[in-house]
Amino acid sequence: MPRSSDSQDFADRPPWTRPGFIASAALVLIVVVAGVLVAVSSRDTDNDDDAPPPTSAPPAAEPTAGNPLPTAAPTTPPADVRWELVGQTAVPVSDTAGPTRVGDGTAAGYAHTPEGALIAAAQLAVRAGFSSGRDSWEPTIEGQFEPDADRDRLLAALRDAADTPAGPGELSQIAGFSFQSYTPDTAVIGLAFRAPSAGTPRWHVLSLTLRWRDGDWRMVAPPGGAWTSINRQTTDLTGVVEWGAQ
């Protein structure tokens, strides 16, 4: 995990990839401790170049006149999800929602459904984080984020950051989601990460925007290339569907 200057760390790096995040106006940083003890396979799909892609079903077919695309956002956790590690962070994998192609640090091939957008949001957000390693965040951002000036700023900030790995238990974990809006073209999803302290548990929620482009979900880079621009902190998960590795 990189440890650059406090101002660069706050402005340019994803909260879940930093060993500290902003807890309140009175605190500059608190140490982020993993909020979920994951009982998942220890296989890291990013580090096993020879591993075959998961045997997932292909994403849902495009609509026909009698088979429109689903638009109802889930209000409960997707039923067919298993959790796998990318570095130290657990990410969801679904046989029906994707990803169907995993390799070279990336994960692609998501269903054109709300569940597909949710899985894509979690996968792309984690893989775009600094702690996933340059072999992951660089191809993910270059190939699976919409190209624009904000994406370029995000890449530049990550490339300039000092490379100091995260220690065990320093990364927060996915803890829930809420759909802020959904159409077959655009999904806006609040993805919650838990960072418990010694006292009151705390979460930070990233408002992630994805667009359906070229047959897959693509992430929109945060304004200014700074994840903090779409981050809010809370001690209350009201309205959030709890979801994460157990």
- Element order: H for helix, E for strand: HEEEEEEEHHHEEEEEE
The coarse overall form would be: globular
Biggest sheet record: 6 strands, antiparallel
* Percent range of helical residues: 10-25%
What are its keywords?
single chain, 246 residues, alpha+beta, 6-stranded antiparallel beta sheet, 3-stranded mixed beta sheet, 4 helices, 13 strands, 18% helix, 27% strand, globular, disordered N terminus
Folded structure, characterized:
With 246 residues, the chain is of the alpha+beta class. The protein is built from four helices and 13 strands. Strands 8, 9, 10, 11, 12 and 13 form a six-stranded antiparallel β-sheet that branches. A three-stranded mixed β-sheet has the order 3-4-5. α3 (134-144) packs antiparallel against α4 (149-160). Mean pLDDT is 79; it is low at 1-13 and 15-58.
In a nutshell, what does this entry contain?
With 246 residues, the protein is of the alpha+beta class.
In terms of topology, how is this protein built?
Blueprint (H helix, E strand, L loop, with lengths): L5 H7 L7 E2 L8 E2 L9 E4 L36 E6 L2 E6 L6 E3 L2 E3 L5 H14 L6 H11 L4 H12 L12 E10 L3 E9 L8 E11 L2 E4 L11 E4 L6 E2 L4
Parallel strand pairs: 3-4
Antiparallel strand pairs: 1-2, 4-5, 6-7, 8-9, 8-13, 9-10, 10-11, 10-12
Helix pairs in contact: 3-4
